[in-house]
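Support reply, case 0932

Customer input (verbatim):
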Amino acid sequence: LAQVSKLLSRRRAHSSVADGVARLCPAMAELTVENFTALCAKAEGRDKLARFWQYAARAVVGVLATFQPKVGSRLSDVETKSRSLMTNLAAARRTHRWCKEFPVIKSIPKCLTIANPVDMVLELGTKVTLATFMIIDHIGHLKQWKILSGGKRAGVGTVQLGLKFFCLSNIFGAVSQARAYLRLCASSEDKEKEKTSCMKLIVKHVLLIVQTAHLSQLFPTHDAIVGVFGMITSALDVQGQWPPAKPKAPAPSNAEAKDKTVKAA
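Our regenerated output:
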């Protein structure tokens, strides 16, 4: 009986985990060449796909660094190539980040119309710090291209300063979504879909906080951890760009099936 109860408890745990994953991952279309082409046809889809491999390369760099491979060894060669892939993908994505701040800046005045003062400050803080990150990132990009002089901060230092603002933006976003989730939980209405969406955004914001804190040197952790977290957030973004699953046609009723049979006869 003890063994049976253990098996049942394990099955319940597995089913609860599976249910949680299913709620966080909405229905997506099948993995086909056509759907992959639809993903790559969008600039945002290509960007998030590149981001996934950028952070996968960072995870490899972080894992191999723990082994301290000798120069000229096989592991050292893999680490060098992974670091090159990570750096070049980051530079390519930075090029395509130009003008992304315009929609964010345009949405700032709308934040001032939010009735709740706390929600207004959080939303305003999220947007302003996000736009600030993008603008500083452009300045760092121009310094890397040697178009602007380095000044007190070189290109890398300027990019890290921008990432500090991005970290702050995600802190504002996480708190804002947590407040929204608590309101949904307190509601008497059935809002399971909205709660799942909020929880997904909270997880994404928290993982991004860890990533940006490390990349900006605000709170360094480890490249392997940041790489894995980056892959998860990138996969969530790719999921948002992937074509949705088409609704299945309802099965014909017995009466409809008989009618079709009679007509065929």
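We compared this against your earlier run and they match. Two observations from our side: The chain is about 75% helix and 0% strand. The chain has a mean pLDDT of 86. Please reopen the case if you see a mismatch on your end.
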